[in-house]
Amino acid sequence: MMTIKRFLPWMTALAILVLDRWTKALVLENLPFSPFTEVKLLPGLSLTHVHNSGIAFSLFANGGPLSKVLLHAVILTSVVVIAWILVRHSGERVVTSLSFGLILGGAVGNLIDRMLYGWVVDFIHVWITIDGRIHSWPDFNVADSAISVGAVLLVIAELTGRPKTSEEKADDAPDTD
Fold it and tell me: Based on the structure, what is the number of domains in the chain?
């Protein structure tokens, strides 16, 4: 019998994907495309509408057609590998399952943007003012956040994890009845 732990990464990925697509649709419909237009929400937090044709922090944004094809291939391969890991190992540890679900949902969300538009919609802008000087973080989105949080949780889980006892492994084994 499948436990909730086996469904957790898939439910997490689906929730992130739905939230990511919904927030990006709101941005596309309601905010003009411009790095100079912003809606301030709180000190240090605003909404913008920018397009990122690169990867994290706009790396490789100025690459040619071949770099775009390679980028799509690497991302798609990553999604397939993560899905394969989940099929083989989901349910082993809740934090690990949650982490991979966050990463998978974020990766698929950004991959959909790349396939539809050739770029990713970014809209969350964070900054801090120190001594009168503004220090900005590159704009990002829900998918980017999920990937980052998932990666951090995965590292923490691996650093703090312990091997399962044979009793825990037996408890997680599928029923053969």
Answer: 1
Neighbours of 121 (CB within 10 A): 26
Where in the sequence is the domain holding 47, given as residue range(s)?
4-56+67-161
Establish if 142 belongs to a structural domain: yes
Q: With respect to residue 42, please indicate whether it lies within any of the assigned structural domains.
A: yes
From the candidates 122, 139, 172, 177, give the one annotated as an active-site residue: 122
Contact 125, 136 (CB under 8 A): yes
pLDDT in tens, 10-43: 999 999 999 999 999 999 999 999 878 889 999 9
Alpha carbon of residue 54 to chain centroid = 15
Query: Does the annotation mark 20 as catalytic?
Result: no
Whether 45 is in a domain gets the answer yes
Among candidate residues 20, 113, 139, 144, the one labeled active-site is 144
Does some domain include residue 105?
Answer: yes
